[in-house]
Automatic annotation (TrEMBL):
Location(s), subcellular: Cell membrane
Annotated InterPro entries: ABC_transp_permease, BCAA_transport_permease
Chief location category: membrane
CDD domains: TM_PBP1_LivH_like
Pfam families cross-referenced by the UniProt entry: BPD_transp_2
UniProt-recorded name of the protein: Branched-chain amino acid ABC transporter permease
Cell membrane recorded as keyword: yes
Lineage of producing organism: Bacteria, Bacillati, Actinomycetota, Actinomycetes, Micrococcales
GO biological process: amino acid transport
Length: 293
């Protein structure tokens, strides 16, 4: 029983990392209608900025807040001067642009700080608590709590605020939104900036658990995209639940399913995607799109 609880809690903690990136992807999609494949690279760059600030003596909390601010400005800048040229064009072109941004940002991180492993200080203490025979780290609990808080804030943003509704209106039909008096350009910049800031939080959470490297978020980005497909692009709550489901089932399958083990546990999210897309193509919590012709 203790092993099972340990695997579940660790899976929730790992899934929370995937969820943070997935929420950033959903935020960009809700604001612009695009999938941002550069989100992982932007999160890594933000983590390096926070790490650099700690290296010159800035307290960790303040360093993370400065990194979030940096990320907001970076996201708004990229939307205004790079992405906007492709947002309403061919979706395939926009995908290639975000992949190119991922490669560029990763290269910049390696150029500025090298490809050597760096140790990022942890936001939470490394202590553990005993629950039903399982040793649960405070960092796992703290990471999960942070993601729950962000999920609730985003859900409230999209559903209960004029700003969130305006972001969704711009993503669905920017021309109609503009005719309604909404500042489309500023809303697009704000959406990308908020998503980049959320990615900075993801980078600050994952960097202490791994070692800080330019490719640190590559695997997490794959899992985050899987969570987005499973949970549905229109549901912040759904992608968080999907990310937790992936993290927990992956851990359980690695231990309790002999032919999968730790070497093949990466197939778990893809099996989930296959099953879910057969039953609900819009995702577990997504809304089915209705197109009028």
């Amino acid at each position: 029983m203790g092993t099972f609880i340990q695997l579940v809690v660790d899976g929730l903690s790992t899934g929370s990392i995937y969820a943070a990136l997935a929420l950033a992807i959903v935020l960009v999609n809700q604001a612009t209608g695009l999938i941002n494949f550069a989100q992982g690279g932007m999160a890594v760059l933000s983590a390096y900025v926070a790490w650099w600030f700690t290296g010159i003596g800035v307290p960790l909390i303040l360093a993370i807040l400065l990194a979030v601010l940096f990320s907001f400005v970076m996201g708004a800048f990229l939307e205004r001067y790079v992405i906007r040229r492709f947002e309403r064009g061919d979706p395939d072109t926009a995908v290639v642009v975000t992949i190119g941004l991922l490669t560029l940002i990763t290269g910049i991180c390696g150029w500025l700080w090298s490809y050597n492993n760096q140790q990022m200080p942890s936001l939470f203490p490394l202590d553990t608590v005993q629950v039903l025979g399982a040793s649960i780290s405070v960092r796992s609990i703290g990471t999960t709590v942070v993601i729950i808080a962000i999920m609730l804030l985003l859900q409230g943003l999209f559903v209960g605020t004029k700003f969130g509704l305006a972001l969704r209106a711009v993503a669905v039909n920017p021309q109609s939104a503009s005719f309604s008096g909404l500042p489309v350009g500023r809303l697009l910049m704000a959406g990308w900036g908020l998503a980049a800031g959320l990615g900075a939080v993801a980078g600050a959470l994952v960097a202490p658990q791994l070692t800080l490297t330019p490719g640190m978020m590559d695997n997490a980005l794959v899992y985050a995209l899987a969570a987005v497909i499973l949970g549905g692009l229109s549901s912040p709550f759904g992608v968080v639940v999907a990310a937790w489901l992936i993290g927990v089932l992956e851990n359980l399958a690695a231990v309790y399913v002999p032919f999968i083990g730790y070497d093949l546990k990466v197939v778990v999210p893809f099996l989930l995607i296959f099953v879910v897309l057969l039953v609900r193509p819009q995702g577990l919590f997504g809304r089915k799109a209705v197109v009028r012709v």
